[in-house]
Amino acid sequence: MSAPEDQDDLMTKDPERAQSEHGGEDQSQSKASEIAQDLNYGMDIHLQPDFVRSVIEAVHAEDRELARSLVAEQHVADIADLFEVLPPEERRTLAVLVADSLDPIFLSELEGAAFDDVIRVISPQVIADAVQQLDTDDAVYILEDLDADAQHQVLHALTREDRMALEEGLAFPEDSAGRLMQRDLVAVPEFWSVGQTIDYLRAHDDHEQPRDFYELIVIDPTYRPIGTVPLSRLLGCQRPVRIRDVMTPEPHIVSVSTDQEEVARQFAKYHLISAGVVNEHGRLVGVITVDDIVGVIEDEASEDILALAGVSEGDVNNSIRDVTRTRFIWLFVNMGTAILASMVIGLFEATLETMVALAVLMPIVASMGGNAGTQTMAVAVRALATKELSPANAMRIVNKELMVALINGAALAVIVGFVGIIWFGDILLAFVLAAAMIINIVMAGLSGILIPMMLDRFGIDPAVASSVFVTTITDVVGFFAFLGLAALILI
Amino acid sequence: MSAPEDQDDLMTKDPERAQSEHGGEDQSQSKASEIAQDLNYGMDIHLQPDFVRSVIEAVHAEDRELARSLVAEQHVADIADLFEVLPPEERRTLAVLVADSLDPIFLSELEGAAFDDVIRVISPQVIADAVQQLDTDDAVYILEDLDADAQHQVLHALTREDRMALEEGLAFPEDSAGRLMQRDLVAVPEFWSVGQTIDYLRAHDDHEQPRDFYELIVIDPTYRPIGTVPLSRLLGCQRPVRIRDVMTPEPHIVSVSTDQEEVARQFAKYHLISAGVVNEHGRLVGVITVDDIVGVIEDEASEDILALAGVSEGDVNNSIRDVTRTRFIWLFVNMGTAILASMVIGLFEATLETMVALAVLMPIVASMGGNAGTQTMAVAVRALATKELSPANAMRIVNKELMVALINGAALAVIVGFVGIIWFGDILLAFVLAAAMIINIVMAGLSGILIPMMLDRFGIDPAVASSVFVTTITDVVGFFAFLGLAALILI
Given this structure, which CATH class describes domain A187-308? Predict the structure, then answer.
């Protein structure tokens, strides 16, 4: 049976053409502004300050009915956002008031401190019910953050089968493909026909299959993945066609132990929608879908940004205590490097006493070196993360950074030299300033590229560790070069 | 027809159980190490330095056959990576040797300077052939980066229909949903049955439909999207079921003019696989799929990282000239702020002459303020980008940052105070150092959160502009507070 003619143009290649035939430009004009408004305010309309204020009022009044009616009909992702913007006290009370009325998946949407607060006040039975209804990856996400006691309680409220599946999921290392994967999946043997596959899917709908999936994984009799069939291709084929004749062979697979960052990189590079996950024997044990990967990519990028700035945890909802402690560690380490730089200055106390202008100008050299080093370092860290910088092109990139540093160092040296002449009227001083500037910017460029590469080679995350080293070098070299040259030439 | 019993366990919920029944543990043991090896080296095996060296040798010998055989059978994404790691000269020669033998989609995988180099040396006819075969979004990606002449040439080598579609795509603003969307899509009316839809897809396979798709978009007679049906759900339904009874109503849609960063945020938040794109009349004109969004998320995160570090373009393949120029601008601006900070020091020349220890210690205060400000700023910029920081919780977050700054400022002041006493044996000097430290770290915390928020409010990207302001404040306040207090108390 083919689609009737008059409906055909509804599905035509270019919808624009079809709609002009349908006319109706006039009636729809009035609706246009409505829609535009919806689009403008988008899906965050519910998190306008007014809405949040209403929720807070309902929470303060402990008005369960009102609170439930406010969050009812909201998308779970919006409900999670709501919990995240609330202050901790109100967050916990709201959870007590409404948690059991929500789609359990909202728990897997919560992050960081908001998750901790909510999970602490709702009963283990509600958590167990939620875990039972969720896909394995979402259930593991919730379980992994519970403390040992609560985890034990929840696991023992489950059926034996579910418990075993989740315990296996939890046994994989954190941030591994094993944690991220969904165990419910649809795999078919290559000798099936398209018709057989569709009949199977119809017969087994709802209870055994994962919520939504986008590709079938084709397996051999020993459960090794040998191909994939996108559902759109399956739907385009006649019933008698064999799966082996429509599958894409050599599927992209990942091992259970692969780090999620590497999994994400492969999804991004190869435009994957899903990837089979295999155990150490090469057998299919789960599947990772792209919607989970989007979250991983966002998180990993955030981690890199924050790590470069010396912040280990970027959740704006964390408690003051946690934030203060983690940031303090970094500041303390940096105080060490700042004191080191000061000790370098201390070596030249006599020089500074003779010529106080040096004290005025020396921060310029250090600061410019710091900026140039940070530029190169950020590019290097990002290129290492995306594998654009690899042993295959390392030499070329290092040479390029050296050239860039020489050119910019020279240009800035000329400018800062003129500033020195105009400000202090001292050509020799200006020359020392200019020379120190070139030296420090070249050192900054070299350390900005070489330090991240070395850390990466030694298996240390360059985003976390690079900036302490780079800043120390640019500070120490900056002060030493400037004051040292001054001591030699000016005094 | 239902699936035969003996095949059923191939598709069971938990593959682990099925495979133990299948046995075969022994025969497969030997293959295990092979597979492990494949997984370890992954899909980048071809970009090992040895492989790149072979390609470079083939290029230098201008050995067309060898070059073609080396890149044949590689995944297009790996071919793109190969072009990106090659030096510019070799890159262009390789393109001349092999471009016409490759799947045209490899052009849409190239980025930045690698794309520019390759596109410049291959003939407009090869580009036109490629564009003709690609999805609209990939074709637009290629066309938008051509210079006006080449674009004109390529467009006029196309059929009128294709040309018009691409010209429309190019008319949308850069980085908008209109540029990102794919115009070929499958939309169905709600009154169709599942069977009718499947028959339609079978009848129209290959030429009119997009390559792969994951959801059907359900439309009303005026072409407005009213729902979506994931293909897995379509496949699970019996033929007579009506589309309206299985669709998810109120689909997530985006407008053609929505910025791609906002589109990406919605995909991430709502775990979307695809989203319909509507024009100003609310009518469906295209679809964006998650595989394109993964690239956007990576790019936008990279942009933020690099912008914070003062780099406008992170492509390691850009030419030395481009890199030098863009980085110079930032360094030049920062030299202005460094000179400003020096001028603040200049105000206290007399004080410094009296007590040279101040010159030794003053960089500690400025540097710690800079670090604390950068920490807060990175968190704020990231939270603004992910909308975790919004008017609804702004006051709470600012208060929290103030508290964190007060606590860490006090702790670090005590420590640096002791350092001052031990080093210089001067309690008053140590007190001045400690007081300046608290003042500067609190100022750093406040400016680190308030400056990004203000820039965001005024529609300026906080990632690009924040750090100049924050560093200026921490430098100026640091030197002024320390030297000013010293002038008041010590001299």
Answer: alpha beta
